[in-house]
Specification:
By secondary structure, this protein is mostly helical. It has helices at about 1-5, 15, 20-35, 40-50, 55-80, 85-105, 115-140, 145-170, 175-205. The chain has a single domain, classed as Up-down Bundle (Growth Hormone, Chain: A), CATH 1.20.1250. Helix content is about 80%, strand content about 0%.
């Protein structure tokens, strides 16, 4: 952003990056990808080393999220664009966070079925956010910056994934149930916070 401020023709003008609706898009993009997918490598490692599950069994457990994600995206995506972005982006991200909250139960009951509510809820939340995110990002920008806005949203989404994997991997370096619970709590905090901020910014921009 410092370089962009000095550039006579910035790719993302400062006015766009500080616009409430665009900031809300970036927050949702970061939060839902961080929480929904950032913990998956740590979960896979924990189920193998902590629970003794074989790799094929771990894949079968984690694929539940993908199945739900694809089903929700395919069945309801065409209806999501008619909803207010606060519901799709904000509440969808919060739903991912609520799913992560349920996964913290592994501290008291270290077993793979405890993870199923997280996988289902995060799949639903991600399935709601993903189809809408690029369109809302583009709609928040002037036509001549629409492509850059869409690219920025996707870049922030990948940043969320990268940091999610790094943070969850660091928190679960000993791969124990309490550590896994802590990583899920971090995911919940990120998703619920960014989702709530996105809702607030999107609703406030309507009233301004």
């Amino acid at each position: 952003m410092l370089a962009e401020r000095r550039c006579p023709r910035p790719i993302l003008p400062p006015a766009l990056v500080t616009a409430p609706r665009f900031v809300a898009v970036l927050l949702a993009a970061f939060g839902y990808y961080f929480a929904a997918f950032g913990a998956l490598p740590a979960l896979a490692t924990w189920m193998q080393t902590g629970l003794g599950l074989a790799s094929p069994a771990v894949s079968l457990v984690l694929v539940a999220q993908l199945v739900v994600f694809v089903a929700v995206s395919g069945l309801v995506s065409r209806h999501l664009h008619a909803l207010h972005p606060a519901w799709t982006l904000g509440v969808g991200t919060i739903l991912v966070g609520v799913g992560a909250v349920t996964a913290t139960a592994v501290a008291g009951r270290p077993d793979w079925p405890v993870l199923l509510p997280f996988l289902v809820l995060s799949g639903v939340g991600a399935g709601v956010v993903s189809p809408v995110l690029p369109a809302v990002a583009i709609a928040t920008a002037p036509p001549h910056h629409a492509g850059a806005a869409g690219g920025a949203a996707n870049a922030v989404r990948q940043l969320g994934l990268t940091l999610g994997v790094a943070v969850c991997g660091t928190l679960t370096r000993t791969s124990t149930a309490p550590r896994m619970s802590l990583a899920c709590a971090a995911c919940a905090l990120v998703a619920i916070t960014t989702g709530a901020l996105a809702v607030r910014l999107l609703r406030r921009s309507d009233s301004s």
